[in-house]
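Sample entry (178 residues):
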Amino acid sequence: MVGLAPAAHGGNRTGRVFTGDASGDFLWAALWRAGLADRPSSRRADDGLTLRGVRIGAAVRCAPPANKPTIDERDACAPFLARELAALDGVRVVVALGQFGWDAALRALADLGADRPSPRPRFGHLAEVALESAEGRRWTLLGSYHPSQQNTFTGRLTAAMFDAVIERAKDLAGRGAS
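Predicted structure, serialized as tokens:
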């Protein structure tokens, strides 16, 4: 999963993205319901939470002012995401949390040799695009609205909608529904 950046009062404070804030509460509960986390919440980076077959990263490594990274911040952090994905040989599915995560994941996968579809795939909730490198490595990029309070409190993203994304990701990864 690729999110935007550590939240100022969540991941930036705790040292683990989506930990200690409402967005994380929403995300961890969904991963737990899907059998991909051993508990439904996380308050601290050292709380013992364990994930199964999931890694969560961020497009930007620091909490940007007003939660809006600059182009310079985005570009400076881009190589970190590409290296993180490169180190994960078994990754077949990348879930992009929001438009920013979608764009960052497309760039990172292109840096790993993924084809660049034309026209550029558009972000949307449950949007899906298959990508392949010249070496035959394959990924599916799957979109989800970001689990921010702005989306969850307004109903733009509900627990059922997020659960559907996670179940689709599991199906694409060959892990089946829980």
